[in-house]
Design goal:
Blueprint (H helix, E strand, L loop, with lengths): L2 H15 L2 E5 L5 H11 L2 E4 L3 H10 L2 E5 L5 H17 L3 E4 L7 H13 L4 E4 L1 H7 L6 E2 L2 E2 L7 H11 L2 E4 L3 E5 L4 E6 L10 H15 L3 H20 L5 H14 L2 H7 E4 L1
Parallel strand pairs: 1-2, 1-3, 3-4, 4-5, 5-8
Antiparallel strand pairs: 6-7, 8-9, 9-10, 10-11
Helix pairs in contact: 1-8, 1-9, 1-11, 2-8, 2-10, 3-4, 4-5, 6-7, 8-9, 9-10, 9-11
Length: about 270
């Protein structure tokens, strides 16, 4: 089975099985990530309450943790969901938004990465460099490094934590510490829509829900993201129309469109 067929098989399973993906995410992106999961075919649940998050995580097919707005209740919910998901054998995906930018975010990242097992991490180059213990530079939540600059750091991080790691950017780099792939696609205009990076993490959550090979699942999710973004940007007037077209195309994405819109290089 070629890559596009394999990725589309996962997408078809999501559309058929409608897996519950629980999100403890940041306040800015709740709407767009929930809508993207719905368009993909998954069933999103969004929560910030620790008790609620723990109960939902135990019955989910995947859990997505995002520290974009790390208020006390959000962080407590993230840690409760991580513990509950680990106990239930539910895969957990982590988005370390602006991981090294402040002392509080550094502390939250430490609690998450030391507090349980992760299936996958998706972040920009600065975030992945920080998690791997290397020097990185931020401008708010934006990376000042290219994705390929963090390739070696991603490999090291994946080996240390035993999970898939994706460095997203103009080219997405995905590794499990041994195998590595690059995904070419998407469009620069995607960076002008708040929450599409976090949306990529949510899609990874849906794909790990149906594919226990977390490296393959992460690669498939990012290819779907890249293909959808490229198609959505074609002929749009700007970021507003891209955001709407992104959801529409995600809802109807075909195997042929996936093959045409994202190129995967091993």
């Amino acid at each position: 089975m070629n890559f596009a067929a394999s990725a589309f098989a996962d997408l078809s399973r999501i559309r058929e099985e409608k897996p519950l993906v629980v999100n403890i995410t940041n306040n800015v992106v709740t709407g767009i990530t929930a809508n993207a999961l719905l368009a993909l075919g998954a069933s999103p649940a969004m929560t910030h309450h620790p008790g609620d998050a723990a109960e939902l995580a135990a019955v989910a097919r995947a859990v997505v943790l995002n520290i974009g707005t790390p208020g006390e209740e959000n962080v407590a919910a993230i840690l409760a969901a991580l513990e509950s998901a680990n106990a239930a054998g539910v895969p957990v995906v982590f988005d370390p938004v602006a991981a090294g930018a402040t002392s509080w975010r550094r502390e939250v990242v430490r609690r998450v990465t030391e507090g349980g097992r992760l299936a996958a991490i998706r972040g920009n180059a600065s975030e992945i460099l920080y998690l791997a213990g290397e020097q990185s530079t931020f401008r708010g939540a934006d990376s000042l490094h290219g994705s390929r600059e963090a390739g070696a750091a991603a490999q090291s991080l994946a080996r240390r934590l035993g999970c898939a790691v994706c460095v997203s950017g103009e080219v997405d780099v995905v590794t499990d510490g041994r195998a590595n792939v690059e995904i070419v696609g998407g469009h620069a205009m995607m960076t002008r829509v708040t929450g599409l990076g976090c949306t990529a993490t949510a899609l990874v959550g849906a794909f790990v829900a149906v594919n226990g090979d977390f490296f393959a699942a992460t690669t498939h999710a990012m290819a779907v993201m890249a293909a959808t973004g490229a198609l959505a940007a074609a002929g749009t007037a700007g970021p507003g129309s891209l955001a709407v077209r992104f959801l529409d195309i995600l809802y109807t994405l075909t195997e042929a469109e996936l093959a045409a819109g994202a190129r995967v290089v091993a």
